[in-house]
Amino acid sequence: MAGEKTIIRTTCPRDCYDACGIAVVRRGDHVKVLGDPDHRVSRGALCGKCAIAYNGAWRDPRQRVMQPLKRVGPKGEGEFQAISWAEALEIVAGRLKGIVAKSGPEPIFHCHYTGTCSLLATAFPMRFFNKLGASEVEPDSICNLSAHVAFGYLYGTSGLGFDPRMAKEAACIMLWGANPSHSAPHAHKHWLKEAPGQVIVVDPVRHATAAEADLHLQPFPGSDAALAFAMLHVIRREGLLDRDYLARNSIGWEEIETQLDACTPAWGEAQSGVPAALIEQAARIYGRGPSLLWLGQGLCRQPLGGNIFRAVGLLPPATGNLGKPGAGFLFLNGGARKGVDGGDIEGADLRTRPRHAVSHMDLCETLEAPDKIQALICWNINIAASNPDQARLHRALKREDLFTVVIDLFRTDSAELADIVLPAASFLEFDDIVSSYFDLTLSAQVGAIAPMGEALPNQEIFRRLASAMGYSEPALTESDAPILDRIAKACGVAGGFGELKAKATVDVWEQPVSQFADGKFPTPSGKIEIASPSAAADGHPAAPQATVDPRPAAGHYRLLSPASPWLMNSTYGNDPAIQTKMGPERITIHPEDAARLGIETGDRVRLENETGRLEMNVEVAALIPPGVLLGSKSRWPKAQSGSHANINSLNPGQKSDMGESSAVHGIEVRLVPLGRGMTASVKAAVPAK
After folding, report:
1. Is the peptide bond before 565 cis (omega within 30 degrees of 0)?
2. pTM given for the model
């Protein structure tokens, strides 16, 4: 690279548990995105998939949406013409005003999720929708709402987790349903390896983190609550139950105790498939403590995911693993804990109407009803890849009378189904703040390059749209700088965003913080509500139950589709280098099942159920229990030659027991062998195990 070399430090805010540190090296017009091995920005280095994409599709003008686009052909055919921002905003504002004048704002829906994970780009657009009074597709219903509801009953919060710096004090770290090797590679590569305690992984999948753990328990999907109760049986039997802690800090333990007699390790083995000896070993290690418990988001995406979360969530109070060094649990560490005022960023006071929301599980039905929805605005999300009942969803999005706007960096499958596509800037192209899901930190996202083409940050797009609508509230056009300063100062950075940029990442607390050290919980009683009157009032059992999903019927398999090691949800799915790394879409089957069906690695099979069918290549490996199939989520449907579909074509959109949330890991399918169809080149792309 010619010219003077400059290095810009910033933070990669992808949708994993923490923000990775990166360095942008620039010489003249040449830019390269690197990991941050000296940890100046974060505790982990940039993962390989991020570096590949940020040096590829994210800076490739042939891939990026470079200016606003207007559909000129049939919906879904991808025929667009470039238009100016002025024309695009006039079209969007005109259509929205027309709907409001005729039907009010409720038939206008917006659909979003975390996108870049940075605070302004994620939350500022809510100011526009709060002012408009639009309806919303409930964001967390596509991911983890059942867990939020469950921990709301149990602890009063799901966003106040352990401080990861406590790992140095922990004798045990138990990961239940979490796969850092795919979803938080910095924690997998650094945090777990640097921790002195024993690592226990509970997961149906023998992923890399599970394979490297001291102990791996591999339950059949849907049996986690029973496994937790069997561990509690052992904890009580071994004298590891902390009755003093339970008496001081909880209500309703007696409703668990009456269930424990029957939940022996042998019973647990029969229910979960985990050998009784391993149940006992894990219970002893965890129960002796001090122990940390990390509950992953995949755990709650089951038909009884809410009950499962409440059941596994009993382990910390039962053993007194709260309120002391080296102890606690983690689902997420929310921004509010660090001082982030979400209501301020979102402009909550702009809303004058009751919020109307529907679950992502009901999105197809909603889209099919012209009386319910007349316009859809998608931002920070790619529903055509990530949502259930995929074929039905794509058909519904082709409604000619449904005005659809998609804001994105790329022409995703969702964008191809839009009427207007607006070009979004990537996180490399503007300043923002990142609040880690994992660490108790705040990080500066520093714009490293100019926005490509006519792309704009989300917040600027909605500022301009608010002006086009004729809105006059100052909050709708407030610039980034004062908001970033307020956030930084509220989180203890006295010098505001300028100081945060200079420091890159700051610990909100200088020293490790014990979780719930004061013994106060934000529940109605102020205690851990093991038996929850709120849960009972909502129609659930007052206390968690030792329930198990029925095993699949004869000839059926439970299908799991967790995160790919090369994608972040659907992000990166269009990068050619990433596509090469992923290879063809494949399904993993246990050797016992493969032998019974007479299939081997490289064969072609069809997965089918009442929702859809999908042909895939086979990988035979003992990564999952017999009776389970393993795929991965969120490939771009448009990138799958022939099928134009991904694994969500098999997802019926079943709701979990709490929060009307996704139960994607409850999918059942039949498997039909199609014969020896894979070429030698494709076989070579299947990684050896």
Report:
1. no
2. 0.94
